[in-house]
Amino acid sequence: MNEVAALQATRQELDSIKKALREKEQTLRMSQRQCRTLEDAIEDRDGEVDRLGRKLEVLLRQAGGNSRMADESEPLNGGNLHTSELEFDDSAGEAGSASLDGQETSSKRRYSLGGLFKKKRDS
Questions:
Q1: Is 120 domain-assigned?
Q2: Quick one: three-class SS letters along 20-79?
């Protein structure tokens, strides 16, 4: 009789362990799905940052070219446009000279652009 009771207790314990294992596997699958979703969101955000960085570089190059053309031609609007373009050219020149340094600068630029996308945390 003791053996039967011991077998039943062992079976109940085994069933309990199997149930706990199924629950843990379900939790693991759910966590893996959430992880993949977050990884996809991160990849999307990185792609957006890269796209915006390239767009910024194009705009800075265009602004630099427009400013150089304005330097060579007569100022428009009584000189106001000419002055604002020169000020913008100074900032574009800094970015342009920084891009000559290579990838280290682009990673710095990526880091600074990435700060634009950080979510504010509630304190």
A1: no
A2: HHHHHHHHHHHHHHHHHHHHHHHHHHHHHHHHHHHHHHHHHHHHHHHHHHHHHCCCCHHH
Q: What is the pLDDT of residue 83?
A: 40
- Here the tokens at position 29 are 């699958």
CA distance 57 to 95: 8
Residue ranges making up the domain that contains 60: 2-114
Is 123 part of any domain? Answer: no
- Considering its fold, how many domains does the chain have in total? 1
Q: Is residue 85 part of a domain?
A: yes
Predicted structure pTM score: 0.43
pLDDT in tens, 47-61: 999 999 999 999 999
